Amino acid sequence: MPIYAYKCESCGHAKDVLQKVSDAPLTTCPACGADTFRKQLTAAGFQLKGTGWYVTDFRNSGSAATGAAAAGASSSAEASKPSAGDGGAASSATPCGASCACH
C-alpha cells in the first residue's frame, strides 16, 4: 500500500497516511477539522537492488575492475620486494612515510 502525504491548507498540519489506491482521499484535517486537507505531490522513493540495473552493472564499467587489478598488482609488487636490513630505511625512502595509503 502506498503512503500519501497530506497537508491542511488552513492550519498547515501535515501527515503521512498509509492508504489503498482505491481508498477515497481524506478531506477533513485531523488537527483543525477544516475540509482543506489535500494530498501533496511527492516523489516516489524506491531502490534498485540486485543485478541487471544500470546503477549496479554499467555505470562505472571497467573503472572498478581496473582499479582493483592495479591495487592487486601493486600489493604483489610490494610483497616481492626484498626487505631492507634495518626497518627504518624503507620508511625514510618514501616521501610521506610507510604508513601512508599511497605506497
From TrEMBL:
A Pfam family per the record: Zn_ribbon_8
Compositionally biased residues, Low complexity: 76-93
Residues in Putative regulatory protein FmdB zinc ribbon domain copies: 1-42
Region of interest (Disordered), ranges: 76-103
SMART domains per UniProt: CxxC_CXXC_SSSS
Top-rank lineage group of the source organism: Bacteria
Coiled coil region boundaries: none
InterPro entries given in the database record: Regulatory_FmdB_Zinc_ribbon
Annotated protein name in UniProt: Putative regulatory protein, FmdB family
Provenance organism: Tepidimonas taiwanensis
Source lineage: Bacteria, Pseudomonadati, Pseudomonadota, Betaproteobacteria, Burkholderiales
